[in-house]
Every structure is written in structure tokens, then in C-alpha cells.
Prior knowledge:
Layout: E1 14-18, H1 23-39, E2 44-50, E3 65-69, H2 81-100, E4 105-108, H3 113-121, E5 126-130, E6 143-145, H4 157-161, H5 163-166, H6 184-193, E7 201-204, H7 219-229, E8 233-236, H8 243-250, E9 260-261, H9 268-272
Parallel strand pairs: 1-2, 1-4, 2-3, 4-5, 5-6, 7-8, 8-9
Amino acid sequence: MEIPVLQSISSRPRILIVRLSAHGDVIHTLPLLTALRVRFPEAEIGWLIDSSAAPLLEGHPGIDRLHVWPRRFGGWSILNPVQGVRLFRAICAMVRELKAQQYEIALDAQGLFKSAMWPFLAGIPKRLGFRCTRECADMFYNIRLPKRDLRVKNRFAADQCLDLARALGCEISEPDFGGLIPSEAARRKINQWLPDAEKPLVVLAPFTRWETKHWSMENWPVLMRALLEAGVQLVVVGAKTDASQVDAMLAQLPAGHGVVNLAGQTDWTDLYA
Length: 273
């Protein structure tokens, strides 16, 4: 698939990336940021993100300005008179914030109505996105790239997102997720939890928000035993709500198994570390 390349871009463009959520999808968008920073090292790059996912990007050296949309405004806020007024004021405030940065180019990496509307409302001159998006989001773009299909099995989602960078003339071989720098406090915490630095480290995250995405509970202890026999340092991570299920998994392992259970104990900077 040939990606049309946008012409007449300055050497110091002001670029806005829009990817509000969800957490995994924000991570998949990081190579887009890396590619832009390599191609335009002096660019001013902003990112519009949902407040729930903002901790993923706070302090990222490749982002000049992080615009955070409050998570508290759900889809039904407009039906509540009080919430509706607050929502309207918050929208106006965000539009003013985006306009103040004078972005020249906006890249909508999400492709939904709630993401595509922001560059349009802010009057950003060049608004790029993919054709045939959900919720008719592409009506807000004035530069439309070929349709993206995340069900294609031979293209990684992050690589499809990079088509936005290719449209700005970025030459990319492999997605680069670099740039995430854990804090020193997180490093110290992780070093206390994982004292054996000699062993290869394997981290398991068995749970997601959607039960339909879960692997069979019976399989995890089998995998854990095989990894322990291979001589790795094994860590299990998850939310606080996953703790009891992790305990049930670990109870099926031999005594003194040495698996480090961090379910409910880590934040994003800890996981980076």
C-alpha cells in the first residue's frame, strides 16, 4: 500500500498527536512519536491524551506538551444539565489550550469521533487520519490516508500507526518504542523486589479488562513451572483486583517457587523500571 507523502513541511513543524486511550493503544502509538522526533528533531510535538492514560507519557523526553483531557466526562455528561455545562467549559478550555500552541499538523492515531474532533475544533490546518474510520471520524480530516485494518494478521498495529509518520516523509524500518525513562525511585523499588539481577527476567501479565481475552487459568501454572525450570526470574503483575487469582495460580506451584508476585503493587513507572 502506497502512502502519499505530505509536501512543504517546515524543518521545525508544530505537530499534535491525538491518541486519548486505551493504555495498550497508547503504547502502540509511541513508535509514531519516535519516528517524528528522528525525522524532525527540532519539532514542537504535543500529545492529547485521556487523564487515565496520562501517566504513561508523563516526563517522556520526546513530548514538548502533554494535553490531558479529564476522564470524568463520560458520554452521557451532556444529558446532565450541571455536567453538561462543565463539559462545555472543559471543551472550550481544551480548544483554547490547543490553539495557543499553534499546531500546524495533527495526526489522529485513534480514528474515533472523540479524537478526530479536537484538531478540527482547534483549527489545525493539516489534519491527517485514515479513511473509513469508525463513527465517521474521517469527516474531520482534510488529508485522508488509505484505510487501516487492524485485523490484518501480517501487520503489527504499531506499524499501521506509523503510516501517519510515513505520510510526513519519515523513513522507518522497525517500530521503536524507546524514550520511556523510569524514575530513580522506581528503579530503587524494583531493585528491592528483584534482587537476583543475574537471571533472565520474565514478566507475566495474565489478566486484562476483558475476560474474553484471558488465557485459560489452568495453563498459567504449567507455563510458570516450565519457565522456573528454565532458570528465569519470574514476576507476575496485575491490578489489585487480580491479586486473589494470582494467589490461586501460585498455590499450584511447588513450595519455595521464588515467583515474585507484584499484582496490585506497581504503577506505570514501576513497570517501566
